From TrEMBL:
<dbReference type="InterPro" id="IPR002941">
    <property type="entry name" value="DNA_methylase_N4/N6"/>
</dbReference>
<dbReference type="InterPro" id="IPR029063">
    <property type="entry name" value="SAM-dependent_MTases_sf"/>
</dbReference>
<protein>
    <recommendedName>
        <fullName>site-specific DNA-methyltransferase (adenine-specific)</fullName>
        <ecNumber>2.1.1.72</ecNumber>
    </recommendedName>
</protein>
<dbReference type="InterPro" id="IPR002295">
    <property type="entry name" value="N4/N6-MTase_EcoPI_Mod-like"/>
</dbReference>
<dbReference type="Pfam" id="PF01555">
    <property type="entry name" value="N6_N4_Mtase"/>
</dbReference>
<dbReference type="GO" id="GO:0008168">
    <property type="term" value="F:methyltransferase activity"/>
</dbReference>
<feature type="domain" description="DNA methylase N-4/N-6">
    <location>
        <begin position="117"/>
        <end position="382"/>
    </location>
</feature>
<keyword id="KW-0489">Methyltransferase</keyword>
<keyword id="KW-0808">Transferase</keyword>
<dbReference type="GO" id="GO:0032259">
    <property type="term" value="P:methylation"/>
</dbReference>
<keyword id="KW-0949">S-adenosyl-L-methionine</keyword>
Length: 702
């Protein structure tokens, strides 16, 4: 850059004018022939290390009566894995997850397993909403729209068009590069909408010398004639190595028998047993005599695999693998990638989990795995699918690993608030309370110990940002209300202490204070949604059970489930909808609204019974048996372990609906306790919207 260029740039900056693109290139290009630049590109990446919060530990019990223990893992008396790597299903923003994996204590665990050998990702392609999903109920289809926090993620991805998509992907791919082992590989699945952008970005991050293949996944079937273009029939999968150390295992392409016979152009014979064979004549030029070659051996061996994969079909709507997830990919596709770029016992990852195909294929192929997603429905779908894989492997006598469901929980919210307020504690607390009260449409009040606002004659407590609302906090609120002669209070929280039962709330009401518990939706962090009044708080759901205890064993029956989840405003919809029908969700009910041409509206309740809401439920028969321990990294690099005060939910029994089998058991198997005593049993219900509700039951085993 010469002095004329420099002076011109200074003049333009002083005048507040935009720099021509050729000057931008000159400022940032260094010695590169081509510089990849877009509006919003940043070289810095997130380097935060947040601790992971354990939600659930899932290990289908391996030990059964009168059966020998065959597992390769050290287990307890119930057959649950005690040591070794536990697979990770993580719910949250994959940017923060990747940063925490790369910079936090879990990095050491990953390195102990030999490092992360393979990453496969199938990121969004700009195909509409990334987080909404459909629910089949009463013969109708209801749409569960993405939450505002999921909409924020979608807007961050596509809000400014391709530049915001590139910014989102660039930081995540750089974090993946940082996390990947030196001999590791990455496969990035995309289609025509973003493939050319991602190729340039991968060249930039991984280096063009580490490019291995542009794989074309051509899917047979689904033939259509288009009026203005040729039919789109393939996806692109970019394969890069981290370095020259990454290796590829020998993989072959399966041959279709009939097609292969045509290609052979050989006469097929049969021996006395009916086995087909042909004369192999290759090599005659070198003096090798023709010899018999059996057709099955020839076909089964397969052929060298090239970069066009045309032998793997996409999943049709009725395919048995289908789990009700729109962008689901076939396991056969992931099996090929996993076999090609990893070995048994290797650790692999997928940071755009979807329906959990990568983890399911990895488990079946004896690989360890990490998989993550921001979508609640995605994580819940993957949880059910992976339990199904555990059951399948257990039934066939094969080994499988436990997996744990993790998130960044309160730490993710702390990071958001710290980032918003530059870490100033008092400012953070005030901003947080004001933010929630504004979203709840309540007025701020002063000079109260536990109460922050008021709304329509009710007082409001904004629960803490970084811990669940506890029973002791509710008692403090109750005491202040009783002292000041207040009779009604709403308690808002992101999380509520396990075991806050309806009975306890009823006791407070009988003593003179009516307490309503309401979830704070993550939507409150979207200022646009708050300003438009779109944020909806809803009451905590609750469940009831019946316990049967006999001879140191217990059976749990789920007897009721009540939710007040609200997504739509029926009155508003009735005014605005045209003739036709619409399925809506309001106050724990799913309705079908129908409006005829005369404006007459009829409502049909689709959730006719409480159990229509239950998609999954699980039990930990001894909830206090395992403390939740988190690991944090100190400034000196040392790792500190501490108890959070909570316990880990050990998923010992579960029943859930699947696409193949929509029925569900509402009575558990009998659980046998080894010793008499008092135990706390936790029951967890996940409803058809993917929302968790829990209850703790105290039992006395004599």
């Amino acid at each position: 850059m010469n002095d004329t260029d420099k002076n011109r740039i200074i003049e333009l900056i002083k005048a507040g004018e935009k720099l021509p693109k050729e000057y931008i290139y000159k400022l940032f290009a260094d010695e590169e022939d081509v510089f990849l630049f877009w509006n919003g590109r940043k070289e810095d990446i997130t380097n935060i290390a947040l601790p992971f919060h354990s939600i659930e530990h899932i290990d289908e019990p391996r030990k059964e009566k009168d059966k020998a223990q065959t597992s390769m893992f050290e287990t307890d008396f119930r057959g649950r894995q005690l040591k070794g790597w536990t697979n990770k299903l993580i719910w949250g923003d994959n940017k923060l997850i990747l940063s925490s994996l790369a910079n936090g204590p879990m990095r050491e665990e990953i390195e102990k397993e030999g490092g992360l050998k393979l990453i496969y990702i199938d990121p969004p392609f700009a195909v509409g909403s990334d987080f909404g999903f459909e629910i089949e109920i009463g013969g109708e289809t209801a749409e569960k729209r993405q939450s505002i926090i999921e909409e924020i993620a979608y807007r961050d991805t596509w809000g400014k068009g391709i530049s915001s998509y590139l910014t989102m992907m660039y930081e995540r791919l750089k974090l993946m590069h940082k996390l990947l082992a030196e001999d590791g590989s990455i496969y990035v699945h995309c289609d025509w909408r973003v493939s050319y952008y991602l190729r340039l970005m991968l060249d930039d991050i991984f280096g063009i010398d580490n490019f291995r293949n542009e794989i074309i996944w051509f899917y047979p079937g689904r033939e259509r004639i288009s009026e203005n273009k040729f039919q789109s029939k393939h996806d692109t999968i970019y394969y890069f190595g981290k370095s020259s150390k990454s290796k590829l295992n020998a993989v072959t392409k399966k041959w279709d028998k009939e097609e292969r016979v045509k290609m052979l152009r050989r006469k097929i014979h049969k021996d006395e047993y009916g086995k087909e064979w042909f004369w192999e004549t290759r090599g005659q030029a070198n003096g090798i005599e023709p010899y018999k070659k059996y057709l099955d051996e020839y076909v089964d061996k397969g052929g060298a695999l090239n970069d066009v994969w045309d032998d793997i079909q996409f999943l049709r709507g009725n395919h048995p693998e289908r789990v009700g997830y729109e962008t689901q990919k076939p396991e056969e596709l992931l099996e090929r990638i996993i076999k090609a770029s990893s070995n048994k016992g290797d650790l692999i990852a997928d940071f755009f989990c979807g329906s959990g195909t990568t983890a399911a294929a990895a488990e079946k192929l004896s690989r360890k795995w990490i998989t993550t997603d921001l979508g609640r429905f995605s994580v819940h779908t993957a949880r059910k699918r992976l339990i199904g894989v555990q059951r399948e492997l257990q039934e066939s006598g094969k080994d499988f690993r436990a997996f744990e469901l993790l998130n960044l929980g309160k730490y993710e919210r702390q990071f958001f608030m710290d980032d918003l307020t530059n870490g100033k504690r008092k400012a953070k607390e005030d901003l947080y309370v004001d933010l929630i009260l504004e979203a709840y449409k309540a007025k701020r009040i002063d000079n109260h110990a536990t109460l922050h606002g008021s709304k329509a004659g009710r007082f409001v407590n904004v629960g803490p940002l970084d811990v669940p609302v506890t029973q002791s906090l509710l008692m403090d609120i109750f005491e202040e209300c009783r002292t000041k002669l207040y009779t009604q209070v709403d308690v808002l929280g992101f999380e509520f202490e396990m075991g806050l039962t309806p009975q306890f709330i009823q006791e407070l009401k009988e003593k003179g204070v009516s307490v309503a518990l309401k979830y704070i939706p993550k939507d409150v962090f979207d200022k646009r949604a708050v300003e438009k009044g779109q944020v909806k708080f809803f009451d905590v759901a609750y469940l009831n059970t019946r316990e049967k205890i006999k001879d140191k064993s217990i059976t749990i029956e789920l007897t009721d489930f009540v939710t007040h989840y609200t997504q739509d405003d029926i009155e508003e919809l009735q005014q605005s909808m045209r003739a036709g029908s619409k399925v809506v969700i309001e106050d724990g009910q799913i309705f079908k609204l129908e409006k005829d041409k005369n404006g007459i509206i009829t409502r049909t309740v689709l959730t006719k019974d409480w159990f229509d809401w239950v998609d999954y439920w699980a039990i930990d028969f001894d909830y206090l048996s395992r403390k939740e321990i988190i690991k944090t990294k100190n400034e000196d690099g040392s790792v500190e372990e501490k108890w959070t005060g909570n316990y880990l939910f050990e998923n010992e029994w579960q029943s859930f609906r699947t696409k193949k089998n929509p029925s569900i058991d509402f009575t558990s198997v009998a659980h046998q306790y080894k010793a008499a005593g008092k135990y706390k049993v936790m029951v967890k219900v996940v409803d058809i919207l993917g929302i968790d509700t829990s209850k703790i039951i105290e039992v006395n085993i004599e």
